[in-house]
Amino acid sequence: MVRLPLTEVELARGQRLGALLRQARGERSMLSVALEAGISPETLRKIESGRVATPSFPTVAAISEVLGLSLDAAWAQIRQAGPPGAAQHDDRPRGAVASVVGAHAYA
Q: In whole angstroms, how far apart are CA 82 and each of 5, 16, 41, 55, 91?
């Protein structure tokens, strides 16, 4: 399967996700959060730094659960519009998130 390049909007959203998770982690170590979420510390580091802008839904859900974040609240925070002057875009989740959220949410 060929993956399409990420748009500027998706990259910015990934940066916001990373910042949100980093803030929610607070003083907890990256190692303890990652292990409790069942992911590698390197994966968490890449997500928090924005290097992985579109992590899988199960990964985001596991990290959010460990940090006590509501997925609805997290999505509301990170789905903000892109950079000023950016064209309108479809910010519905794609891939794994779209399959979990389901099409009925956007009908």
A: 16, 10, 28, 18, 10
For the beta carbon of residue 40, count every other beta carbon within 10 angstroms. Answer: 12
Instruction: Name the residue with tokens 């990420």.
Output: 6
Alpha helices, DSSP H only, in the chain?
A: 8-25, 30-37, 41-49, 57-67, 71-78, 95-101
Nearest to 45 by CA among 66, 31, 28: 31
Indicate the pLDDT class of residue 83, thresholds 50, 70 and 90: very low
- For residues 6 and 36, give the distance between their C-alpha atoms in angstroms, rounded to a whole number: 29
Q: What is the pTM of this model?
A: 0.73
